[in-house]
Design a protein that fits this description.
539 residues, FAD/NAD(P)-binding domain, D-Amino Acid Oxidase, Chain A, domain 2, Helicase, Ruva Protein, domain 3, 3 domains, ten-stranded mixed sheet, 18 strands, binds flavin-adenine dinucleotide
């Protein structure tokens, strides 16, 4: 920990460390309340756990089994808010639970659980659950394993296809309210003086170090929370007991019928998801203890085999095989430290607490994508209390995200004013940027060449490359492909798009040949995160 920072007045009221979903949500909330806010991330925004998730905005049916009714209720409320505030990013998702003789949960148990789920969802917009006979279930999902199938149930949750975009929009909202957003700036230590936090020392990629002073610091570094503290605060014991989760992505396969499934893995009875996603199928997840650097978490071959085997248990005739796996990814859940509990039993509830021995430092532990807004409200309530600004009330429950405020269909209709854009690109822009899509499209009026598609899968266009750099904090081609226009999550991880997008960089952003080469190399390094390592895994 460094010594006192001497500035008379701090640079910021609040410094938020970590621009994942939680940090971005906190920065938006703080800025909306009029606090002088700065948010920094060592990497690009949304490059941590938030993108390695199952991408569901859900009440967490499984948490009911662990008696976490409060968490389920909170999540269902937040799900409803997100469906309204970000209709372009968060959509309803019907799921089907098949029940077999010998399943851990009988049809009656599933039915009862979903009845409670419906009860906790009362007043919300999504339909309630339905119980299906064996025949009805087979009709819905033709490839389903039928031996010993007793029936099924369907229920609704929601999906955020790209949490990466949700993070960016939260940061855009924060900036619109005056927050400073800095990516690729790493906190190397916390500043303290007389038991109070005073800010942080940070380092830019070129090695430049500087001091940012703030009255309050919120450590929202996700699975890195303990590492940030270790770089500054006096010891107080570790806060996290992280676990790793892996997903695989395959093309749609026969018999799947595009119906999201929530099933039990045949080998160990753990529940897992098979979800239609981004025109592909997302299958996950695993849940194993992980103590290493979160940046090094990779999917292992054993985990991929486990997920394929689990899928085969549901679709015995048509399940994908190893050669069908397009890519895999792994992330680390920043769960609270809870001894040697079974990983599934570790609470998914979050908490925001002032550090044991450093006043003004607040650590965020746990949390889900789903509950980022309520977590942020809780965090900023504590911040304003600390700052003596209790009158600054939370405004996020009523505020649409920057791209919200109209349905994607309405946005798509508006975009017909831009005849240079294909119908598929209009849909892509509406789904990706919501009402902000018109600003992307407007670039095409000035530069018709920017209407050219850069990606045949996503239908992203050149204008998005320029827009990402100008308006959405992008600093590299990889940022654009993996976390802005989302061409990077297609079957080829944006390989083809990277060529064309680099051409846009050369033509419109002044990249020379060296820069183009460096951007390609950085894209390839990031694409490698989606490959597997051979090491065996304990599941
Ligand atoms: C496999 C898996 C599946 C999941 N599925 C779901 C789901 O379907 N639905 C759901 O609601 N939740 C889900 N979750 C949980 C959810 O994804 C996470 O709880 C949430 O994304 C955590 O967000 P965060 O902002 O706290 O952390 P992160 O997204 O990891 O953000 C932390 C940020 O801090 C930055 N940082 C770290 N150290 C420093 C430093 N020294 N200086 C500057 N910046 C730093 C990192 O670069 C990172 O960007 C899942 C999680 C996993 C792992």
């Amino acid at each position: 920990m460094s010594g006192p920072a001497t500035a008379a007045a701090a640079d910021y009221d609040v410094l938020v460390i970590g621009a994942g979903i939680n940090g971005a949500g906190i920065a938006r909330d703080a800025a909306l309340r009029g606090l002088r806010t700065c948010i920094i991330d060592q990497d690009d925004a949304g490059a941590g756990t938030s993108r390695w998730s199952s991408r569901l905005i859900h009440g967490g049916l499984r948490y009911l089994e662990h008696g976490e009714l409060g968490l389920v209720h909170e999540s269902l409320r937040e799900r409803e808010l997100l469906l309204r505030q970000a209709p372009h990013l968060v959509r309803p998702l019907p799921l089907l639970i098949p029940v077999y003789a010998g399943s851990n949960r009988s049809l009656a148990t599933v039915d009862f659980g979903l009845w409670v789920y419906d009860l906790l969802s009362l007043g919300r917009s999504l339909p309630g659950h339905r119980r299906l006979s064996r025949e009805e279930a087979i009709r819905e999902v033709p490839g389903l394993r039928i031996d010993s199938l007793e029936g099924a149930a369907t229920y609704f949750d929601a999906q955020v296809t790209f949490p990466e975009r949700l993070v960016i929009e939260l940061l855009v909202a924060a900036r619109e309210s005056g927050a400073v957003v800095r990516t690729r700036t790493r906190v190397t230590g916390l500043l303290a003086d007389g038991g109070r936090v005073r800010g942080a020392t940070v380092e830019s990629p070129d090695g430049r170090r500087e001091t940012l002073t703030a009255t309050v610091v919120v450590n929202a570094a996700g699975p890195w929370v303990d590492r940030v503290i270790a770089g500054g605060a006096p010891a107080g014991g570790r806060l996290l007991g992280p676990t790793k989760g892996t997903h695989i992505v395959v093309r749609r396969f026969a018999g799947f019928a595009g119906q999201a499934m929530y099933a039990e893995a045949s080998s160990d009875g753990r529940p897992f998801f098979i979800i239609p996603w981004n025109g592909l199928v997302l299958i996950g997840t695993t849940d194993t203890r992980f103590e290493g650097d979160p940046a090094t978490a990779r999917a292992t071959e054993a985990e991929v085999a486990y997920l394929l085997e689990a899928t085969r248990g549901v679709f015995p005739r048509t399940a994908p095989e190893r050669r069908h796996v397009l890519y895999a990814y792994a992330g680390v859940r920043p769960l609270p430290r809870q001894g040697l509990r079974e990983t599934a039993a570790i609470t998914r509830r979050h908490h925001v607490r002032q550090h044991a021995s450093l006043r003004g430092l607040y650590n965020v532990v746990g949390g889900k994508l789903t509950t980022f807004r309520s977590l942020a409200e809780e965090a900023v309530d504590q911040v304003v209390a600390r700052l003596g600004r209790r009158g600054a009330r939370c405004a996020t429950a009523a505020a649409a995200l920057p791209g919200g405020g109209a349905t994607p269909l309405d946005v798509e209709t508006e975009l017909q004013r831009f005849p240079a854009l294909s119908a598929l690109t209009r849909r892509h822009l509406a789904d990706t940027y919501g009402t902000r899509a018109e600003r992307v499209a407007a670039l095409v009026l000035a530069e018709p060449a920017l209407a050219e598609p850069v990606c045949a899968w996503s239908h992203a266009i050149g204008a998005e490359v320029v827009y990402a750099f100008q308006e959405e904090f992008a600093g590299s081609l990889a940022d654009v492909l993996f976390r802005r226009c989302m061409a990077g999550l297609g079957p080829d991880l944006g390989r083809a798009a990277s060529e064309r997008a680099a051409g846009i960089g050369a033509r419109f952003l002044g990249w020379d040949a060296d820069r183009v080469r460096a951007e390609h190399a950085a894209w390839a390094a990031e694409a490698a995160l989606f490959s597997t390592v051979a090491e065996s895994a304990r599941l």
